[in-house]
Design a protein that fits this description.
Radius of gyration: 26 Å
Mean pLDDT: 80
Order of helices and strands: HHHHH
Distance between the termini: 74 Å
Number of helices: 5
Number of strands: 0
Structural class: mainly alpha
Strand content: under 5%
């Protein structure tokens, strides 16, 4: 490889690392904010018979954002939910083919979700509806949906052709035979009794 390709590759790697850090910090910040709001609501309601009127609608929006950012991070790290029971019995070559098909299907599904959630955001953007207590337009919390689903579709497509982060162990791997005398049926004194 020439030096220009190496510098482009390292620049891309640095940019992806920064993106991963931003995602992680944003997710951590939103979870901390969610915990603080929920904790303060509990304390205010239980001990002071009051509460923050806009906290519950905001927490619902934060749950949506943290859920989507968490799913995005799971796809990034190849830790998403996967049904790989049958994959453990396949040869490595067949595993690669199955991985391409399943992650390709997940990519198409996420792309469709991005498309339809974008349509939802457009409808709410045109309607100018806002939450009663938060005064945040309805499309703002929903804006995470097309962005996250679109990025998940891209990540699933890229992951389909890259090696898995972890290779599933074979379920039919041979078990080492036990060595030494069996402890089944022996008493505490070390003698076997019928």
């Amino acid at each position: 490889m020439n030096t220009k390709t190496l510098s482009t590759s390292s620049s891309l790697t640095r940019a992806l690392d920064w993106l991963h850090h931003i995602e992680d910090w944003l997710l951590a910040g939103l979870v901390i904010l969610l915990v603080i709001l929920a904790g303060s609501q509990i304390i205010l309601r239980d001990f002071f018979d009051s509460g923050i009127s806009w906290a519950d609608p905001l927490m619902r929006d934060l749950v949506l954002w943290t859920g989507m950012l968490g799913a995005l991070a799971a796809v990034r790290d190849d830790k998403h939910i996967a049904l790989d029971v049958l994959q453990r019995f396949l040869s490595p070559r067949t595993q690669r083919s199955v991985r391409i098909v399943t992650l390709g299907f997940a990519s198409v599904l996420c792309a469709a979700m991005a498309w339809y959630s974008y349509a939802l955001v457009q409808i709410d953007f045109g309607g100018n509806s806002a939450g009663a207590l938060t005064q945040i337009p309805a499309w703002v919390p929903e804006a995470i949906l097309p962005v996250a689903f679109g990025l998940m579709a891209l990540r699933f497509a890229l992951r389909a052709f890259s090696p898995p982060a972890r290779i599933p162990e074979l379920l039919h791997a041979p078990v080492e035979p036990q060595t030494g005398p069996s402890r089944i049926g022996s008493s505490q004194t070390g003698t076997d009794r019928p």
